[in-house]
């Protein structure tokens, strides 16, 4: 296939998938090397960004997804009869910050950091597809481990967890769980990221 045909094939794959597609799957489908696949994706991303289109291609870890541009969310909501997502509570933002910066984590760890029961908040975040179960810890009772999802990255406008704002480092201190004050600051940053991603 020509370069243009490969670019069109990637566009079709991203459109048809409806979700994110790993670079490995794209390479396999087109039987091309990673460098070439990334170059084709770069061209496609530039085309979508430079033209007046209602779609864009975003990167999520080592995957790519075709999504609608946020500017057209009100019109899409009207046609599809979608309700606006309710904002996350302060507690949910704090739990999300603990999970995002320390994953994979147990519910007990999150509760130790926050000092309160987090069962309901973790369930709510899982229902919103912001956190997911990541297996079990090899300890007595085999507690569940939690981590963030691709939807978390999408909602916060991040390409990967490396894009999270860095935590402030305190001189001479060992790595310890976050304090309530630090959690509130992170929750504020998370809300700012959410506001920017809208």
Automatic annotation (TrEMBL):
Belongs to the ScpB family. InterPro entries: ScpB_csome_segregation, WH-like_DNA-bd_sf, WH_DNA-bd_sf. Keywords: Cell cycle, Cell division, Chromosome partition, Cytoplasm. The keyword Nucleotide-binding does not apply. It comes from Candidatus Limousia pullorum. SUPFAM superfamilies: Winged helix' DNA-binding domain. Coiled coil: none annotated. The keyword Metal-binding does not apply. The gene is scpB. Homodimer. Homodimerization may be required to stabilize the binding of ScpA to the Smc head domains. Component of a cohesin-like complex composed of ScpA, ScpB and the Smc homodimer, in which ScpA and ScpB bind to the head domain of Smc. The presence of the three proteins is required for the association of the complex with DNA. It is found in: Cytoplasm. GO terms for biological process: cell division; chromosome separation; DNA replication. This is Segregation and condensation protein B. Participates in chromosomal partition during cell division. May act via the formation of a condensin-like complex containing Smc and ScpA that pull DNA away from mid-cell into both cell halves. One of its GO terms (cellular component) is cytoplasm.
């Amino acid at each position: 296939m020509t370069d243009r045909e490969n670019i069109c094939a990637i566009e079709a794959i991203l459109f048809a998938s409806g979700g994110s597609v790993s670079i490995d799957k794209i390479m396999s489908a087109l039987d091309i090397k990673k460098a070439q696949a990334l170059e084709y994706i770069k061209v496609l991303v530039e085309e979508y960004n430079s033209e007046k289109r209602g779609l864009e291609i975003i990167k999520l870890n080592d995957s790519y997804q075709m999504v609608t541009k946020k500017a057209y969310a009100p019109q899409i909501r009207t046609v599809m009869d979608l309700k606006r997502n309710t904002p996350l509570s302060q507690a949910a933002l704090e739990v999300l910050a603990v999970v995002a910066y320390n994953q994979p984590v147990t519910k007990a760890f999150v509760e130790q950091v926050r000092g309160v029961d987090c069962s309901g908040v973790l369930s709510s975040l899982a229902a919103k597809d912001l956190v997911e179960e990541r297996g079990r810890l090899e300890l007595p009772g085999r507690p569940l481990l939690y981590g963030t999802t691709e939807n978390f990255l999408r909602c916060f406008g991040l390409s990967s967890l490396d894009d999270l704002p860095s935590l402030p480092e305190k001189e001479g201190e060992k790595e310890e769980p976050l304090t309530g004050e630090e959690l509130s600051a992170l929750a504020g940053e998370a809300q700012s990221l959410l506001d920017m991603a809208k």
